Amino acid sequence: MAFTSLSDRLAGVFKKLRGKGKLSEADIKAAMREVRMALLEADVNYQVAKDFCAGVSQRAMGSEVMESLTPAQQVVKIVNEELTALMGGQEAARIHIKSKGPTILMLCGLQGNGKTTHAAKLGKYFLKQGHRPLLVACDIYRPAAIEQLQVVGRQAGVPVFTLAGEQPEEIARRAAAHARDHGNDIVLLDTAGRLHIDQELMDELGRIREAVAVDEVLLVVDAMAGQDAVNVAKTFHEAVGVDGIVLTKTDGDTRGGAALSVLAVTGKPIKFQGVGEKLDDLEVFHPGRMAGRILGMGDVLSLIEKAQTDLDEKKAEETAKRLRENRFDMNDMLDQFAQMKKMGGAAAMLSMFPGGNRIDPAQLDEKVFTHIEAIIYSMTPAEREKPSIINPKRKRRIAAGSGTSVEEVNRLLRQFEMLQKMMRQARKNPKAFSRRMGLGGLPM
């Protein structure tokens, strides 16, 4: 995940500060040198890293930190605030949708950065928001570009406008007219890219802007390109004018330098980030939440939003009721695994919890859940509803049917028994159970 290496380095810096109690100017200077090195190793622009550390140092030298009883925590607070400001402030940069007529968004960028896929992702995102988006195939050069947009558009459930034998600016003009006639309130122009920036590409984008009233230009850049991504963003902004950035492949970039540098270098905010290969793997970029992830504070708000979007609320309520009434069975466990997969799996969920970034996702063996599912699917309906009837003969049959061992079947049954026991205790004495689980007396 993005920022893994930077998070680890910063955690080490702050651990040293917490071990010192009172801080001197020398302690803060030494810490800022380490922070600057960590930022540079994360592929953050040199000037951006230098200015960031200077700003943090200036604030950290004041009475806010030097006279505090918890100086290390104050430094972390300052770093959090400065990181948030560096990426655009607390509020996420939004797309401004017009109240009348279609809002036209033009996607541009280099070839291979994911424009076509992210056009479909944006289409699906806006569809979920209650809009009627239209994808427009303006890339007439790349082989199979139009077919690719049609495929991903169909998968996203968003219509695609194509026009054979015309230039991109004419396609865009006719698409805007089509959107007005058919009630599409958002038009997403998927433009051509190049392997490198050239004047011909810039001229074409300029002609499209002249042909239709483009409301926002979204530049699609690859997070894994690091500083090259920032340089591309700067060049596009100077040549065409960019209103926002869509940062792709943030799930594969452990450094995160592009996200920290792009606003400072271009003056334009990141509006969306691609976090996976699926069409649902697109998130609004929240600077404050991202700063929290970097500093190991988690991102519980995004986790809640993801749960509200992805989870079946009715099914969740039914599961909660069955848990309270001690009727939770193996079928319910299968449902929980399915819901977790919808949210990206255990590793994706864990990364949003405070401190979760310090756990290596590689240590979470997702295959364990696959084995458990195979074991449950090998049970009869009666066995799933009442696992207590599973005797040694049944265990051998289940193990053989699931390709696992009797030991794994036993382990799952023991874990299920423990869960049932915990729920019985919760029903008998909710407050005592909450204290025991470290929940501080939360209502059950």
Description:
The protein is α/β, with parallel strands linked by helices and 444 residues long. The chain is 57% helix and 9% strand. It has 21 helices and eight strands. It has helices spanning 4-18, 25-41, 46-60, 63-66, 71-86, 115-128, 145-156, 168-182, 199-211, 227-239, 257-266, 287-294, 300-310, 313-324, 330-342, 345-350, 367-377, 381-385, 392-402, 406-428, 430-436, and strands spanning 103-108, 133-137, 160-161, 186-190, 216-222, 244-248, 270-274, 282-284. Strands 3-2-4-1-5-6-7-8 form an eight-stranded mixed beta sheet, sandwiched between helices. Strand 7 and strand 8 (282-284) form a beta hairpin. The radius of gyration is 26 Å and the shape is flat. Residues 298-304, 352-359 and 433-444 have low confidence and may be disordered.
Note the topology.
Layout: H1 4-18, H2 25-41, H3 46-60, H4 63-66, H5 71-86, E1 103-108, H6 115-128, E2 133-137, H7 145-156, E3 160-161, H8 168-182, E4 186-190, H9 199-211, E5 216-222, H10 227-239, E6 244-248, H11 257-266, E7 270-274, E8 282-284, H12 287-294, H13 300-310, H14 313-324, H15 330-342, H16 345-350, H17 367-377, H18 381-385, H19 392-402, H20 406-428, H21 430-436
Parallel strand pairs: 1-4, 1-5, 2-3, 2-4, 5-6, 6-7
Antiparallel strand pairs: 7-8
Helix pairs in contact: 1-2, 2-3, 3-5, 5-12, 6-7, 8-9, 10-11, 17-19, 19-20, 20-21
Oligomer: single chain
β-strand number: 8
Number of helices: 21
Mean pLDDT: 81
Described by strand count, sense and barrel closure, the largest sheet is:
8 strands, mixed
State the strand order across the main sheet.
Answer: 3-2-4-1-5-6-7-8
Poorly predicted parts: 298-304, 352-359, 433-444
> Into which percentage range does the β-strand content fall?
5-15%
Q: Which class of secondary structure composition applies to the elements?
A: alpha/beta
| Rg (C-alpha, Å) | 26 Å
Helix content: 55-70%
Span of the ends, CA to CA = 34 Å
List the helices and strands in order.
Answer: HHHHHEHEHEHEHEHEHEEHHHHHHHHHH
Shape: flat
